[in-house]
Amino acid sequence: MKAFFGLVPGIFHFHLFGFWHIVMTTVMLCAIVFIYQNRERLRQWKYHDRPARYAIAILMFLNMVVYYVPMIIMGTWDYHVHLPLHLCFISGGLFMITMLLGSRKLFKFVYFLSFLGPLPAILFPDLTCGPDRFIFWQFFISHHFFLTASLYTLFVLDYKIEKQDLPKALLGALGIFGIMFIFNHIFGTNYIMMNRLPAHMLKLFPFLVTFDYPIIWLMLTGFLVFYLAYLLTKWWNRKNAPEVLESIEMENKVC
Prior knowledge:
11 helices
């Protein structure tokens, strides 16, 4: 049991762009495509809204509990690295609140964070363990599942994202960056990788070392990811408009 919650790879190893990386990404993409293609059927499912939202929040919460409790028991927990202040944990926590409250207003901000936190980690994961270690599943739920659940909220629950939400979300993200910059400076931590980038990123992109200002790279990445997330909603709003009009016309005919 101790080995299962450890960070030393067992039988299976995880490699960047290797087998398990491809499997995790493929499973996520297939789930997203399934949700999109079956969005109308899912809307007819009686558990598609509140029960589904609660289930998503509970699963993500339990994932964090199971992640932290063994570290505390084994005495490996360290506030320098294990506080839930990494971007995926912050955005994941806000998403849990969004799901529990059914807050469309909060989703307008959290939607963008659901890309900014998980997407870079999904593309370039800092992971060595395979599915015989819990950290593999913790990573999958807090990144791949999180992003999939966010798109479920967009496609099935039809929570709206509009053009004016983008600059507001950017300001909110900059606020989080500012708070964490001060926190890192006070406590000597490296949350959101503001003081130094992970070794595997520097190895993959050596040019990052020549301009050693991680916060600048993070902000540039944030702008790019936010814009890509907005483009998806722009396409979705155009795609969804005829469906809404058709639904209204059908309701008028029934009346």
